[in-house]
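Final report, Chapter 2: Outcomes

The project's central promise was a pipeline that accepts a single protein chain and returns its three-dimensional structure in a standardized token representation, suitable for archiving and comparison. That pipeline is now operational. To close this chapter, we reproduce one record exactly as it appears in the project archive, with the input sequence first and the structure output second.
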Amino acid sequence: MRLRILKNIIFSLFLVLFFDVFWIQIIKGPEYARQSETNRIRLVPEEASRGIIYDRNHVPLVKNKLVFDVVAVPQEIDTDNREALFSKLSTFLDIDCEVLADTFAFNSGSGFSPVMLVSDVPKATAFLIEQDADQLSGIFIKARAMRLYIHGRTTAHLIGYVGKMREDEYPELKKYGYRIKDVVGRSGLEKSFDKILRGKPGGMQLEVDSEGKIVNVLSYRPPVRGSDVHTTIDINLQQMLAELVGESKGAVVVMDADSGDILGMYSGPSFDPNVIIAKKNFIEIGKILKDTSAPLLNRNLKAYPAGSIFKIITAYAGLRERVIGIHDSFYCSGEFVIGNSTRHCWLRRGHGNVNIVRALTTSCNVFFWEVGLKVGQKMLSRYAEEFGLGKVTHVELNGEHSGLVPNARWKNTELHQRWYAGDTANFSIGQGYLLISPLQALQMVALLANGGREVRPHIVRRHDIPEKSKRILSQEVIAVINRGMRQVVNSVDGTGHRAFIEGEEVFAKTGTAQVANGTAHAWFIGYTVIERKKICFAVFLEHGGHGGERPAEIAKQIVMYVHETSRQQTSDTRHQTPQ
């Protein structure tokens, strides 16, 4: 009996042992093999240099600067000697050894991934640490490429800046090959084209023993530098735009009306992206983030009340719907009655009899109230959308606002109110609920400059040859509006006469957009003709007053610059010696 019990116990033990071996070797074998391999092999990553961003003439707008970081490899540091090690290192860096120890503890992970202790140390300090490498076991100098934004504030909103990936971003980005703590584009072109600018990281596979010591280098894959990005920007024009706007709250953008190439785009006030990526001067970074003038905001992409620049669309709608002809006129006495309210033209004494050309020249409110009410809200909304308002332009920058083209349904849904004739009157002169961005205003005027053909504003050069874009506006109607826009500048009583340049063709429209609080916003949009090219521009100053004043003067400087540049290029071409 006892022998049988003993046999059963032994059999049971063998059975347990069998199932245990089966579980370990057959069921969990592959997983344990993988873990064993992982414990044996360490990966040491090596970052790739980001691609360079150039202007249209191959002038670099950003470059990579070689900097030196002090890093530590956890498994190379003797635990018993750690305090003495950091004490020695602190003499080179002039940083308290406890701060270094805390930084090391906070950033330490597993494996041979270097732990950042101090970034961007002076070259002389890096050399001194290298010379004492035998006294600083586990401490290394790591060279890397750091972004240097050559033109600082001038191109900040265009180029943007880079920064370390946040933890919440990793789950989405890891499927594209990103690693935790990678540097990623934070704004501007750096963000929009991050996947091609970043390149492909490389690194080493190291074989280690049970104590974590390096036994062998199994393989090395060099990093692949990121691809370059070529923009349509003229850096010389960009610098001039920055000087013209200065620290004012405003935006200015210049574009080739046929190709859609953006030649310059500046938003003020601006900021220095080099300050943000260095992360050393916390006081300066704090000033940027707390600045009430919002220097991080690209005002070219933000939507504002349009003011009188919208009268272009009201004029187009009136002519297209045949509610008014080129020779028809309205009498402006300076007053206009809608229901029980009386409104006043900006010129209180009135403009007298005005036709469509004269109304654009003088920006007569009464004329456009008359036309707007005859056209009606539905058609005003329809033509506003034909001109590209109410939707993003899809320029290669993040954060673009779509603006707002209001209508009766929108007002009922959002405000729970009816649409009144007064709303239509406001709409017809660009007031009320209408919102438009400077970039949309530029796209709008480009349609008038290029004969009504679709155009998409873009900052990065296209490698393909675009097909001839389709015509979406009436050339006959555009011709009439262009006559008025020409007189805005050429006529002595035109609202944009300050932009007049003897011998140059300039077409424009001013805008003064009333706001609830503070001084009105100021607009000046238009284009100039240079041989066969049409160069359009949009100038916007937040709370800048009248569009015919400082914005017109800024536009004049832009026009003078592009004409002078064109003449110089023509002269240089003619004087080139044949090879």
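Archive annotation: The first strand starts at residue 41 and ends at 46.
This record, like all others produced under the grant, will remain available to the consortium after the project formally closes.
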